[in-house]
Amino acid sequence: MTVTQQNDQDMAEALCERVRQAHRDKTPLKIVGGDTKAFYGHGVEGETLSTLEHRGIRYYDPVELIVSVRAGTPLTELEAALDAEGQMLGFEPPHFGDTATVGGTIATGLSGPRRPWAGAARDFVLGTRVMTCEGKELRFGGEVMKNVAGYDLSRLMTGAQGTLGLITEVSLKVLPKPGARHSLRLEMPLQEALEKLAEWGRQPLPLTAAAWHEGSLYLRLEGGPSSVAATRERLGGDDLDDTFWLELREQRLTFFSGDDSRPLWRLSLPNHTPELPLEGDTFYDWAGAQRWLRSSASVDAIRDVATRAGGHATCYTPCEEGGSIEPFTPLAPVVAKYHRNLKAELDPHGIFNPGRLYAEF
């Protein structure tokens, strides 16, 4: 068993006092870590509450594949500690900058190319420590994979973007790094690529990433050396530098270049959804389940097409069309009611990141 304390700083009491004061004064708080994902959602007006000084890997057991980390810990620091033990974060989170923190990673709930095969960020969350609006630090879940006490609330915090409470610590399941890795590029049209991915998805192939753009299908194989070698031989294609997946994860490929003035959309869709009737340029990730769209089409048109396909659309860049546009798909009335009630129960004065997800909450 290994217990690691790197750059250990426990600032929980100072954070508690700041939250208590904000609760008493009914002062909104803008929760900030590395601030690399500030673009994701609405901007927040409020006093800045930084988690950066509350940092450190509090507990790490490589044998049990468990790590507990304070929210302000740099994501690079955690990944380096895991890498030293031949392990990794299975959901392959994007950083979007060198200052990304563990707290921001869980609060936004974003996952990288491996997500369809390994699981989403919330699937790896075993437990959290969360500061309530009254300045009390509560623990939900635990540090063992079979512990389910409070687990759902920990998952609820994943992706809530700090609107329901301040995440101060998170316990995560980690994975061993694969024994072998090889990436391929195959030239084929979109429809054939989608059909092939559907076929391969029913077979025990060591696929851990699949993307398509402009006539090329990109694949990553990971697993045992013999399995990876056999699959590489079977599928053929050209060798691809593995850094492609890092560049995709961090949105540094040419497709994501800021030179394109069209808004960037993320479409989340059922597996194997055929090509959508939307103008623009599309980059297919997650074997087609996540699609990045550069388009000048109207917000309503994009969201209507995504909804009819059984998915939803998120605007990743500022969208203006005669006024502010919600970054996230508007909630159905019943869902909005539950969302509003939950926010009122956990944060009655609305001090935690008000309006970050939806302007009305």
Automatic annotation (TrEMBL):
Pfam families referenced in this protein's UniProt entry, alphabetically: FAD_binding_4
Keyword Cytoplasm: no
Protein name, entry field: Glycolate oxidase
PANTHER family membership: D-LACTATE DEHYDROGENASE, GLYCOLATE OXIDASE SUBUNIT GLCE
Organism expressing this protein natively: Litchfieldella qijiaojingensis
Matches recorded under PROSITE patterns: FAD_PCMH
Alphabetical UniProt keywords: FAD, Flavoprotein
Cited SUPFAM superfamilies: FAD-binding/transporter-associated domain-like (SSF56176), FAD-linked oxidases, C-terminal domain (SSF55103)
Residue ranges that the Swiss-Prot or TrEMBL entry lists as coiled coil: none
KW Glycoprotein (keyword) present: no
Segments forming domain FAD-binding PCMH-type: 1-177
Gene3D superfamilies: 3.30.465.10
